[in-house]
């Protein structure tokens, strides 16, 4: 499935679409909102913090994955699941180790 434009799906609809078959993700820029809301531009971490967005998932070159999550409990669950599944180079993002200046995947 090739996404060539901005698309907006609910969680269940997105799950149905991506679980129908296997995909090889090269680049992804996904943002999750609890409720239908105006999807304002989220270009920086400060934009993320001040928005209704709850999760940002960025994938670059199929192997570099960055996840920003507002809910600390969910952050811990994601971290533990990544460790259990054998992912490598897992680290919490902080002001000291985040080289990003924008929240985009490309």
List keywords for this structure.
3 helices, globular, single chain, 25% helix, 3 strands, alpha+beta, 106 residues
Strand content: 15-25%
For the CA atoms, what is the radius of gyration? 14 Å
Number of DSSP strand runs: 3
* Nearest-integer average pLDDT: 81
Structural class of the helix and strand makeup? alpha+beta
Q: Determine the N-to-C terminus distance.
A: 18 Å
Instruction: Please bin the fraction of helical residues.
Output: 25-40%
Count of helical stretches: 3
Describe the biggest sheet? Answer: 3 strands, antiparallel
Order of helices and strands: HEHEEH
Uncertain runs: none
Which geometry do the CA atoms define?
A: globular
| Total individual domains | 1
How are the strands of the biggest sheet laid out side by side? 1-2-3
